[in-house]
Amino acid sequence: AQSVTQPDIHITVSEGASLELRCNYSYGATPYLFWYVQSPGQGLQLLLKYFSGDTLVQGIKGFEAEFKRSQSSFNLRKPSVHWSDAAEYFCAVDSWGKFQFGAGTQVVVTP
Amino acid sequence: EAGVVQSPRYKIIEKKQPVAFWCNPISGHNTLYWYRQNLGQGPELLIRYENEEAVDDSQLPKDRFSAERLKGVDSTLKIQPAELGDSAVYLCASSEFGTEQYFGPGTRLTVT
């Protein structure tokens, strides 16, 4: 069955430390891939997307993601987190118009 | 550029009552989506419109949920009658030709 998996439900990171959020997908062909962020009480904001081409994608707010076909992964990274990065992060895939979100990873940033 | 607009932002109703949510997508976006997001979960697609046509409503509980997108712009999602399990955030999103989606702030529904 087609699926999007975010293995980490909750991650705590110190301000200034690096962050990596994992995303794995299970689809027959490489779908379009997205990362969204949702702050409390807010709608989802697109951080970055991958359609094709360069497998390292740059996004907003200093985030980047790397597509690895062999691992069916699209992990999100940030070299140095800020307190304002505390939020919930969702990986999403679009496969032939079928859009599916992962369950999300809650990121807590400590001083 | 104005984003996706949704109203109301919050709604509290008693079970068995009807409720409606309204969405105005970004100007020029032909694709419109309605999602339901339960607490602690990712959004789940309810229905997708291409212009006026509902092209994917496979996850819409049709016994109590209905949606329309007249003239291919604004859309309304209705629940009648509401059940306790319908408490969730209802998100609207739009995109241009099915590319990346832009989301509205959502409507938080509480059914008591």
Report the total helices of chain A: 0
Based on secondary structure, the structural category of chain A is mainly beta
- The count of β-strands of chain A is 12
Number of helices of chain B: 0
Provide an overview of this structure:
The complex is a heterodimer of chains A (111) and B (112). Chain A is mainly beta and 111 residues long. Helices cover 0% and strands 55% of the residues of chain A. Chain A has strands spanning 3-5, 10-14, 19-21, 24-26, 32-38, 44-50, 56-58, 64-68, 73-78, 87-95, 98-101, 105-110. Helices cover 0% and strands 49% of the residues of chain B. Chain B has strands at 5-7, 10-13, 19-24, 31-37, 44-50, 53-56, 65-68, 75-79, 88-95, 102-103, 107-111. In chain B, a hairpin with a 2-residue loop joins strand 5 and strand 6. The radius of gyration of chain B is 13 Å and the shape is globular. The model of chain B has no long low-confidence stretch (mean pLDDT 93). Classes of the chains: A mainly beta (111), B mainly beta (112).
